[in-house]
Design brief:
- This protein has helices spanning about 45-50, 75-80, 100-110, 115-125, 145-155, 175-190, 200-205, 225-230, 235-240, 255-265, 295-310, 315-335, and strands at about 5-15, 15-25, 30-35, 60-65, 65, 85, 160-165, 195, 210-215, 220-225, 250, 250-255.
- A 6-stranded mixed sheet has the order 6-7-8-3-9-10, with helices on both faces.
- Helix 3 packs parallel to helix 5 (about 145-155) and helix 4 (about 115-125) packs across helix 5.
- It folds into 3 domains: about 5-230, Rossmann fold (3-Layer(aba) Sandwich), CATH 3.40.50; about 235-265, no CATH class; about 295-335.
- Helices cover about 40% and strands about 20% of the residues.
- The protein is of the alpha/beta class.
- The chain is globular.
- It comes from Williamsia limnetica.
Length: about 350
């Protein structure tokens, strides 16, 4: 199972500018979580704080039982081996080929022989659909391919914790869907703890087991997907529906007068600029690809939700109970489908060939 990640009372500032304050949450081990929030709310800063690249002014960051805000540089170096990180821009070395970029963590952190390194690297290259591009430089490929090369590098040490900073940026909707499925499949096979920062509503609604929301320098909510997808919290509801109506404005937040004016316009028939229809509610979660193990995270998450179900509003309770029935049916259908041949997705590649993404092997 993936390593535990817990933060308590975390506060971060740059000079006089406070980014967020008193953030506390625990990422459930072996589950996929998503962190949402308007642009500029410090989501990427939060990821960098989790791996010790940035130091908070207050609070603790406990990784697998160790508070990294208090450990030595040597201890932090060892703890970082638990992580695989996909940075927003891929963070590849421009002078290295894709192969050498992906091999870098193995050469830095292990004593593997070059033949063994090549086997691992080529496995990860095939996994993300970049076979044939391994000798290219980052500047010779598209942004989407660089993002997938960054993911291959993040996976090369078989991490227990995977952090993804806007993995969908630079990808078209089709390849975003493939990348989302890949993360779910990885979780199914190695039970890794995964945290994804994203602005993509489709990813936020269909991929994670848990959802968190940063706004006004604070963590508004964090919890199981069923709880947030049925929440009446205005910020969460506005963000997940992509609407103008609500507390979030162009400059992050609005005053009451502006919110009232916008609501009056909508009441008069003016579009709020959001989704074509109200998508609030529990939409089906992505399932692991047929033939792979069922994700253990689903049962763990549902058990937590059942413990707090009685505390939620009745409409939310009914929606959650219905979603559990639908999810059980989908899992049964998935077990039946394991006898079918796995389809080969089409990735963008240097030679325009169709690549089949194999199962991830820990």
């Amino acid at each position: 199972m993936g390593a535990s990640v817990s933060v308590e009372g975390l506060t971060k500032s740059f000079g006089s500018q406070n980014i967020w304050r008193d953030v506390s949450l625990t990422l459930p081990m072996g589950e996929v979580s998503v962190l949402l929030g308007p642009s500029g709310t410090g989501k990427s800063v939060f990821l960098k704080t989790l791996i010790g690249l940035l130091h908070p002014e207050q609070g603790s960051v406990i990784i697998d039982g160790t508070d990294i805000t208090k450990c030595s540089s040597r201890e932090l170096y060892e703890i970082r081996k638990l992580f695989g990180v996909l940075f927003q821009d891929g963070a590849l070395f421009g002078s290295m080929s894709l192969f050498d970029n992906i091999a870098f963590p193995l050469r830095e952190h292990t004593k593997k022989k070059e033949d063994d390194i090549r086997d691992v690297v080529m496995e990860k290259i095939e996994l993300v659909g970049l076979t044939g591009a391994e000798n290219k430089l980052p500047g010779e490929i598209s942004g989407g391919m660089r993002k997938r090369a960054g993911l291959a590098r993040a996976l090369v040490l078989d991490p227990q914790i995977i952090l993804c900073d806007e993995p969908d940026s630079g990808l078209d909707p089709v390849r975003t869907a493939y990348l989302s499925q890949l993360l779910i499949d990885i979780n199914a096979q190695i039970d890794a703890t995964i945290l994804i920062v994203t602005h993509n509503i489709q990813v936020a609604r269909t991929v994670p087991d848990n959802i968190g929301m940063l706004f006004r320098k604070e963590l508004v909510m964090f919890g199981p997907r069923e709880v947030l997808l049925t929440s009446d919290e205005p910020v969460v509801d506005q963000f997940l529906n992509g609407r103008r109506i609500g507390p979030i404005g162009m400059s992050e937040e609005k005053d009451d007068a502006q919110q009232k004016r916008e609501q009056e316009m909508v009441d008069a028939g003016h579009s709020d600029g959001g989704t074509a229809e109200d998508v609030r509610g529990i939409v089906p979660q992505l399932q692991a690809t047929p033939g792979l193990p069922e994700r253990k995270a689903v049962a763990r998450r549902q058990a937590r939700v059942r413990e707090i179900l009685h505390t939620l509003p009745e409409p939310a309770q009914r929606a959650i109970e219905d979603s559990f029935i639908e999810e059980a049916a989908a899992q049964a259908k998935g077990r039946e489908a394991t006898r079918l041949t796995r389809p080969a997705p089409v990735w963008e590649s240097s030679d325009a060939r169709t690549e089949q993404i194999p199962a991830y092997r820990a």
